[in-house]
Design a protein that fits this description.
This protein is an all-alpha fold. The chain has one domain. The strands form two sheets. Strands 1-2 form a two-stranded antiparallel ribbon. A two-stranded antiparallel ribbon has the order 3-4. Helix 9 runs antiparallel to helix 10. It is globular and about 65 Å long.
Length: 374
């Protein structure tokens, strides 16, 4: 038994709707902005003219909003996992009985990519694919940590490496407690819950539709289509941008441009994580001496894209945390920093690192030789 692709698309939208919708269920998780008529205007020429001042808004970085949304996202993730497990159990085992409950849970766990990877070196390689792409920014970081060749060797500049870890907003309430909440959201709760929902739950449903004889799904389509749910789930940030900047035509234009870029970036990132999830970990039971010819084959044998591989959510989680930590690569800025620290040699070293990282990443993703070992 398998799902139709249309059903997989609908379930994907359902999971995305549950996750994003949960952020707005509680009144404490909703954003609040004063109207432009009651908000004081900034002085002429002041930065971000027309933007609603922080004291007249309750944005996504407000402590109350963060706490409410962390709680909501956690509950929504558990709900999505429960629903996904129920769908997997129904499709793979039909009506679940007491006798088949353990088998259903085991198969659902494997199909959702929740099984722990085996303890050998090949399980580590998937976690290094995304950092390889960031070889250029990482080289700039290394140069920044090492002594300068031309300037004061005791002067180190750490601020550009951790811009989002220690936020510096205009809000006077931005204290250590708020910074801790932002760190908890950006590097722990958000990456884990988003990967569990948008990779484990959604991709597992697509795998249920993949083996169908009437299905037009291919591995490439699964990798490219499933991240659209992830990209669309970030469009709700446009509402905050539009309100923060005064609900004007300029604010609308800013919101559209930022949201379009964010959707494109998150969709591309989602495709990479989908590939990592599907590529997963080695199936160490493939060569087992156990009899694997029952009337109903195990889920991990039937619903898979890559032979001898099991889905795994752990590499996408580490990739998500890493990308949130590093931010979007700033090529010109990194080259400038390399030149500032080590002169022309530093600038060229950063350029070569960028080129090498992209090339090595391409080999690891697109060629069979590059994927050897993982």
């Amino acid at each position: 038994m398998s799902l139709l692709p249309t059903s997989a698309h609908l379930f994907g939208l359902t999971f995305a709707g549950i996750y994003v919708g949960s952020l707005y269920v509680s009144q404490y998780g909703r954003l609040v902005f004063s109207s432009s008529s009651t908000s004081p205007k900034r002085e002429e020429g002041e930065k971000d003219k027309g933007r609603v001042p922080p004291q007249y808004q309750k944005g996504r970085d407000d402590p109350t909003v963060i706490r409410a949304r962390l709680t909501a996202a956690s509950f929504a993730t558990f709900a999505c996992l429960f629903l996904a497990c129920a769908i997997v159990a129904h499709v793979t085992h039909g009506s679940v009985t007491t006798d088949s409950l353990n088998a259903s849970i085991k198969d659902a766990s494997s199909l959702l990519g929740l099984s722990f990877p085996p303890l050998h070196l090949s399980s580590l390689f998937p976690h290094l694919v995304i950092p390889t792409l960031f070889l250029g920014p990482l080289t700039a970081v290394l140069i920044n940590y090492l002594p300068s060749i031309t300037l004061d060797s005791t002067k180190f500049e750490f601020s550009f490496f951790l811009p989002s870890l220690f936020p510096n907003d205009d809000d006077d309430n931005n204290n250590g407690s708020l910074s801790s909440l932002i760190v908890l959201r950006n590097y722990i709760v958000a990456p884990i819950t988003e990967e569990l929902v948008f990779r484990s739950c959604i991709l597992s449903i697509y795998l249920l539709a993949f083996p169908s004889s009437s299905s037009s799904l291919t591995p490439t389509k699964i990798i490219l289509l499933s991240p659209l749910h992830f990209g669309l789930a970030h469009l709700h940030h446009a509402w905050e941008t539009y309100n923060r900047f005064g609900r004007t035509k300029t604010a609308l234009k800013r919101a559209v441009l930022q949201s379009t870029f964010q959707m494109a970036y998150t969709t591309l990132f989602g495709a990479l994580c989908a590939f990592l999830w599907l590529r997963g970990i080695p199936d160490t039971t493939t060569n087992s001496n156990l009899d694997t010819t029952p009337s109903t084959p195990p889920t991990t044998r039937t619903y898979t894209v890559y032979p001898s591989r099991l889905p795994s959510v752990y590499a996408p989680i580490t990739a998500h945390i890493f990308c949130n930590f590093m931010g979007f690569p700033d090529f010109s800025g990194d080259v400038e920093r390399g030149q500032k620290r080590w002169g022309v040699a530093g600038a060229w070293l950063v350029r070569l690192a960028y080129l090498s990282g992209v090339a090595r990443f391409g080999l690891a993703v697109w060629t069979q030789e590059g994927r050897a070992g993982w």
